[in-house]
Design a protein that fits this description.
It is a single chain. The chain is mainly β. The protein has a single domain, classed as 3 Solenoid (UDP N-Acetylglucosamine Acyltransferase, domain 1). Helices cover 6% and strands 40% of the residues. The protein is built from one helix and 25 strands. It has a nine-stranded mixed sheet, covered by helices on one side. A seven-stranded parallel sheet has the order 4-7-10-13-16-19-22. A six-stranded mixed sheet has the order 12-15-18-21-24-25, with no helix packed on it. Strand 1 and strand 2 form a beta hairpin. It is flat, with a radius of gyration of 18 Å. 35% of the residues are buried.
Length: 215
């Protein structure tokens, strides 16, 4: 993609607004959402970005470096200052509908992995989902011990500030994840408040629900 084409994509993001279904390029489809001050940096073949209707995408960066990658954003989702990053081939980032991001969020899928986010999740600031460490750690036999893994998130979870989900981490539905929590494995609970880091993540309250106070 040459420099002139990148500039044109940015202009489209500024000018075209709500309730319009258009293709910014062959690989980027907006089905009727507001996209503003957003960059699309794409290298490779057969990559696809789909943004469903009613979304608000502002000050975001979509970065793809590889082939056969996909990014999907479900209807009525809001992302402010988010980075959606795919490196190498055959990755996918799939965000469901009615998700709300209120600050900096990074979704990074690499090495043929996927990030799947359900519906109605709420994200505070400085949150990171990352499926790979980027660099290899090997045992003395030359075998890699830190392979990339998928990240799976359920529905209606509230992520507090500075939460990090690393490769292989998963969580169920209707949870509250506390400030600076770090998850590195499956934690398939629902209706809980969780805090802590790595193996130290634990439930401090169960049988709870939460609701939006501000729209």
């Amino acid at each position: 993609m040459n420099k002139r084409y990148k500039i044109a994509l940015r202009l489209f993001s500024w000018i075209l607004g709500m309730n319009k279904h258009y293709r910014i390029s062959k690989c980027i489809e907006n089905k009727g959402s507001l996209i503003a001050k957003t960059k699309f940096l794409i290298k490779g073949k057969n990559n696809h970005i789909t943004i469903e209707e009613g979304c608000r995408i502002e000050n975001c960066t979509f970065y793809i470096n590889g082939s056969n990658n996909s990014i999907y954003i479900g209807a009525e989702t809001r992302l402010l200052h988010a980075t959606l990053w795919e490196e190498l081939d055959s990755n996918s980032i799939n965000l469901g509908k009615h998700n709300k991001g209120n600050g900096s969020i990074t979704f990074a899928a690499m090495e043929g992995t996927k990030i799947v986010i359900g519906d109605n999740n709420l994200f505070a600031r400085n949150i990171c989902f990352r499926t790979s460490d980027s660099h290899s750690i090997l045992d003395f036999g030359g075998h890699r011990i830190n392979k990339a893994k998928n990240i799976m998130i359920g529905n209606h979870n509230w992520f507090s500030e500075e939460v990090t989900f690393l490769k292989g981490s998963c969580i169920g539905n209707n949870n509250v994840i506390g400030y600076r929590s770090l998850l590195t494995k499956e934690f398939l609970v629902s209706n809980c408040v969780l805090v802590g880091s790595s193996g130290g993540v634990h439930v401090i309250k169960d049988n709870v629900q939460w609701q939006y106070e501000y729209k």
